[in-house]
Amino acid sequence: MDGGGEARDPAKHPYIDGLARVTFAAESPVRRLVGSGRLNPLPHAGTISVVLFIIVVITGVYITLFFEFGFEASHRSVERLTSHPIQRFMRSLHRYSSAALVLTTVVHGWRIFVASRFNGPRRWRWLTGLSALLVVFLAGVTGYWLLWDERAQLLNEATASVFDDLGLDTVVVSSVLTADGSGWQVLLLIWFVHLLTTAVIGWFLWRHLRRTSLPWLPPRLWTWLMVGALGLVSIAFPAELLRIADPSNLVDSVPVDPFFLFLLPGLAALPGPLVLAVFGSISAFVAGLPWLLARGKSQVVTIDANLCTGCELCVVDCPYRALQMISLGERVIAEVDPALCVACGICIGSCVFDAIDLPGATLPQAADIAGRDVVVTCERHRQLSGVNDRYVLTVRCAGVVSPTALTRLLKKGARSVQVVGCPPADCAFGVGNQLAEERMSGERRPHVPRGSAAMISRDFVAPTALEHAIATPGTHLSADPHDIPRNRVRIGMTGAIVLGSMLLVGLATTIALTVNRPEAAVLVVVHHKPGAEIAGTGVTSGSVGTPTVLRTAIGAAQPTEEQIGDGGVASAVVELAADAGETHLLIELLEGGDRTVIQDGSVQLAAGRRLVVIVEDEVNVDAELGRQIFESSKAGCTVCHSVDPGVELVGPNLSDMGTVAASRAPGLSAEEYLLESIVDPDAFLVDGYRSGQMLDIYEETLTSREIEALVAYLQSLEVE
User: Fold this and answer.
1) Where are the beta strands (DSSP E) in 392-454?
2) What ranges do the domains of the chain cover?
3) With the C-alpha atoms ordered 323, 327, 333, 338, is the resulting torsion angle positive or negative?
4) Alpha-carbon gap, residue 372 to 54, rounded angstroms
């Protein structure tokens, strides 16, 4: 007999075996604690990820019902969520299930890699799985952004830094950095991106799992354990809410969730484009691994049409739906789709007529086995266990072994035959171990003949435990992941492991990031078109087409000059570090022969604070713009108010507002009264109208300029 007759997947690389050994060695404490391969949660990481994604979607929809959009409104809505016990629980469950989703997906991806489950058509499953994970990262970042707290502020600053390093226009980023306006459009856009990424994750998940008969969901035990553990962690450690983002505050330390915000420390310390380039390169490398590790053309099973009887057993058993029945004259035979076949050989175990062949995957010819105990195992066990016994025969997967092949070994004189496969949910080809068990137990055709059943045993253990399985045959009979041992102690230990894992997930989201900040700072934000009047100066700066240079200096430092525009719109975000206390600040624009001083004098800087200086052009506010806002769906004024004389709606008629506004509220000018009526509508009530009729939202949904324009329009309304 020849050295065990090793079968070796040509797509597998030897060094992956070393990684697999390390992986199973790291997992061994978990296997020892639960005491059964059927209670090991790690092989179920992929299907558990699906459950977690469902939890994330459900809790996300619930949270959205109570969410508002705007720089201040979003933060206040989350504050209200945090103060309500049920809403706080759902928000915490959303946070921790999202983080756990990343963890289980990474664990699943790593186990797929060390099992070499990425050859042939499975390359695209690898790619869709990785793509889903990358989109999960983006969804998590946008989720944290929606809170508009100090974490979001660091994200804003990191984004501004990347834009600046790439030389991109910072007009949008600058408005976000300075929280200019209500911000509802910005937060609504981020929410749409968050929603879109969630939909994309679902699409990738569907692409990842389609064209396969592998299970989508884990056994019920894992669902309940995971939901229970996340629920307990969510109750015990509610998700925190940091202070609202404040551009005047120098944030130096915040909790940074490493599952989603792992790039933030790098972005805070290194050039943003470099960090993103490294991350992109690593992602591209991981995505291309199946192609980089490819070894020639993928194998495909062959079917002998003369021997095929059309029983369809192979079609039913194929995990990847690579087989189908076709008509061949008056006969129906099986046909393989090369684009779907992963060369697992499981269909060979379904065929009792030897009509299917896959070189190097099937049971090798055995000789000199009379009176011997023969072991048949898969290549993972042979390679990872180090067992090199001549009576250990190797096949590609336990599912390759047909009852007929086992019977032949007994007919050649073997005293017994033991089949050793992978533990539940851990087969390199998905369900090969489970199919092998069902055939040998008589639950699935083809069956082991009754006369041979007593001499054939089976064990399903971790690939590194082959030697133990040979020493104690018949003690690990089941490969069915749904066949859970009825042992309360073991199940309790499994639950403790799951709960401990979720506790670690929760604690990990509180890891603090400390940013090296100056004692104080000045943030200069510029958005200026040459030739326009700069707000607050009363003078026109430069002329159309003139390059713009920003000149700054703080304290005793020499002024520095930076060209921020080449004739078009000039934009820049510049931060100047300084010591706290009184210091001299110089900010000016140089445009051709024009020199426009924005600041040249002493300023008082507080420790831990940032002085924000916005250099922007004056915007003419006129009644026509106000009329457009009044009639727009954004303001919705026409729903309750009419400007036509004599027409009464829900609110007061405004046709003569320009005349009556000056005398309606004692002590207030017309402009002051109109402004108060918009931002605080219950401060003064017109006779006949009650409080609460007009929503107190416009300070959040409209920008300051839009409110000014609306006031100007109302002041222009007079009855002729």
Assistant:
1) 392-395, 416-421
2) 44-292, 299-360, 363-480, 520-616, 623-715
3) negative
4) 52
What size, in residues, is the chain?
Answer: 720
Q: Which of 426, 428, 454, 429 is nearest to 440 (CA)?
A: 454
| Residue 141 C-alpha from the chain's centroid | 8
Residues 404-458: pLDDT tens digits?
Answer: 889 999 999 999 999 999 999 999 999 999 999 999 998 999 988 888 888 999 9
Q: What angle do CA 148, 154, 158 make, to 5 degrees?
A: 125
With CA atoms as reference, report the closest residue to 70 among 139, 143, 146. Answer: 146
Q: What is the CATH number of domain 520-616?
A: 2.60.40
> Taking Cα atoms as reference points, which of 6, 18, 12, 20 lies closest to residue 298?
12
pLDDT, tens digit, 9 for 90 and up, residues 214-272 = 899 999 999 999 999 999 999 999 999 999 999 899 999 999 999 999 999 999 888 99
For residues 536 and 272, what is the distance between their CA atoms, to the nearest angstrom?
Answer: 34
Residue ranges, the chain, pLDDT below 50: 1-6
Tell the CATH topology of 299-360: Alpha-Beta Plaits (3.30.70)
Distance between CA 574 and CA 555 in Å, rounded?
16
Which H or E element spans position 603? strand 594-605
Token code pair at residue 60: 């996300």
Contact 509, 95 (CB under 8 A): yes
Handedness of CA 51, 56, 57, 63 (dihedral sign): positive
CATH of domain 44-292: 1.20.810.10
Query: Considering the entire predicted model, what is its pTM?
Result: 0.85
Contacts of 21 (CB under 8 A, 6+ apart): 384, 464
Which CATH class for the 623-715 domain? mainly alpha
